[in-house]
Amino acid sequence: MAEKQIKFTVNRIYAKDISLESPEAPGIFNELKMQPKVGFNLKTNIVELDSTTYEITLDINVKAETDEKAIYLVELKQSGIFGIEGADEDLKNNFLNVRCPEIIFPYAMESVSTLIQKSGFPPIFFAPIDFNALHQQELAKQKNT
User: Fold this and answer.
1) 7-144 has which CATH code?
2) Mean pLDDT, range 8-34, rounded to an integer
């Protein structure tokens, strides 16, 4: 009995949309004791392009602010096009919700970090994200509803 061949391909990784706002520049650069609070939001969007090709987009928002002022806001949509053939529904969902975002995330963080630095702000470092844990939480939520 021949085993079913699973084929997973990364066709392209690209920035779909990038934005940085710094509404208080250039005055914000004169503030010496800037200890901003940095907020981070992430959403994943999956679009089926055809029966074996998918676009995965990480929609990332990073906002740095003090109590009084917004320092910067970065919005990024980092996408990838992936091919998945021969996988059952569970394995395909695992690729789409875990493996594909894991591949895209480093590109997204590099883009965000570079953009922040090129805008005159100190570098920012992001902890890795456990996309498997996020996916398992989402599955558990769906079972409870």
Assistant:
1) 3.10.420.10
2) 88
